[in-house]
Amino acid sequence: MDLLNTIEHNQFSQWVTNSPSVWAFPMFLFLHTAGMSIVAGGSAIIDLVLLGMWPKQPIKPLERLYPAIWVGFWVNAITGTVLLCADATAKLGSLDFYLKMGFVFAGVYVLHTMRRTVFADPLLDKGPVSRSAKLWAWASLICWFGAITAGRLLAYVGPVKGAPGANT
Amino acid sequence: MNLAHVHLLVNHFPTVGTVIALGLFLVALVSHSVDLKRAGLVVFFIISLITIPTYMSGNAAEEMLRGRPGVSTSAIEAHRNAAQLAVVFMEFTGIVSWFGLWRFRRQSNFGRATLPAVLLLSVVTLGVVGYAANIGGGIRHPEIGDSGTVVAKGTTAGSKNAPATVPEKPAAAKELEPGGIGDYVTGEKWMWPTCETLHFVGLSLLMGVVLLIDMRMLGVVKNVSFAALHRLLPWAVLGFAVNLLTGMLFFAGRSSQYTTNSVFQWKMALVILAGVNALYFTMFDETWTLKAGDDAPVMAKVMAGSALFLWIAILYCGSMLPFLGGSF
Questions:
Q1: A73 inside domain
Q2: How far is B328 from B320, CA to CA, in rounded Å?
């Protein structure tokens, strides 16, 4: 707890939490939301296509979404770390936070595996989407829906702190 | 200029616009003119977009009018309740109209059920909108309605049972909060968090499609035809519909916090522009004919760039509501 308190009360964390500047907490929160929409949205489109919402069209070109998704992911990793440091004792004391991180790590693993297996499959676009690809797509949808839900509920369950407006 | 001015400026659009669109649509049905049918659907869609600020500016006008001599409180409440129902029907009409335009682009027909559905919905919408407008006229014009007495009604929007993290309103604003569905949104413990979660899910779905289509137009995902991507547009509209519905629920629960927030007004203006932008990708020829590997025309690139800008700006305004506009 001492370590968490130290992190939470260092100069940068205090600036993020207490500064009235729009570049402090509001900007990190906005970037986190934007990154989330790119990661979850890009993944959802790939998943829906693999699940047959885009029949008779090539799937392979969608692999070009991956760089954008990874950019969104790294934006979220950085802004998420900043937001976590600013509210370390509350967030790390919340079971919901660990649930969220579980969904996020599982989602990233699924995304990575889908690229390595589904998109690298030479038979992709030469026949129906395989059953395993569809299972990966379902897993991805569940992970990102779970991550969004757990992330949003952080403001409502467990210890709630943070900057003014953070809980809306 | 304030939102009451905006309401005065736009409050006839839903009624008059629906009459014009319905008239156009009926002529199109009788004359079997495809172009007129498409024009009617476009007008319905645009009117449904304009209805959003009409409804929301109405709440701001309500806050300014309440308690003034000669203003009927009962007429205000009746007008607001009728307007809520009118917005729901209007948005349904707009979304089904958009679907007709989308389907025509793909298959050169509107589908068997689409046009009858638009006709039915628009007739009902006209009735509800006309009713709301008629009551609205009575608020400041006792000669055409009931000259009800002014009653300062102290509705509290269920704040006593609101979730702990749905912030309290200023005391002055509490008297102005709507009841009904607004009470339910703030009074039920899990309603607000559930709506927020769905709002984020809808946003992600919408952004996923916008991102892919814009990447295609800007040449990043070039080896796919636009016709293939066009098929994904209903998922974006589904995401938008989820956000519109949940956004209206937020608004019903805490209307005074939104109507006094200039960032929210920007957000609504940007949503209308983004809706018009979506029409371009839904129905225009120059994008539809793009084959895999084709370079998009300059206009399509401009529209793609502006779509990205608009949706990111909308996201920014939404995120900044508590910080720049002072809500919550």
A1: yes
A2: 11
Asked whether residue A164 is assigned to any structural domain, the reply reads no
Residue A33 tokens read as 């939301």
Strand boundaries in chain B, DSSP class E: none
Q: Which residues from chain A sit within 8 angstroms of residue B264, using beta carbons?
A: none
Q: Do B211 and A153 touch (CB under 8 A)?
A: no
Say if residues B11 and B136 touch (Cβ distance below 8 Å).
Answer: yes
Q: Which residue has the tokens 């659009």?
A: B13
What are the two backbone dihedrals, phi and then psi, of residue A119, each rounded to the nearest 5 degrees?
-75, -20
pLDDT, tens digit (0-9, with 9 covering 90-100), for A41-55? 999 999 999 999 877
B53 near B272, Cβ under 8 Å?
Answer: yes
CB of A48 within 8 Å of a chain B CB? The answer is: yes
CB < 8 Å from A in window 235-294 of B: 235, 292
Of A26, A41, A57, the CB nearest to B204: A41
Query: Looking at the domain assignment, is residue A167 inside a domain?
Result: no
Nearest in space to B138 (alpha carbons), one of B86, B66, B75, B69: B75
Complex ipTM above 0.85? yes
Answer whether B313 touches A (CB < 8 Å).
no
- For A108, the domain range is 2-153
Interior angle at CA B271, CA B268 and CA B273, nearest 5: 115
Plot region of B97 (φ>0 → left; ψ -120 to 50 → alpha; else → beta)? alpha
**Residue B266 in tokens:** 């920007």
**Domain count along chain A:** 1
Which residue type does B136 have?
A: G
pLDDT, tens only, A64-74 = 999 999 999 99
A158 domain-assigned: no
State the pTM of this model.
Answer: 0.87
- A82 in contact with B, Cβ within 8 Å: no
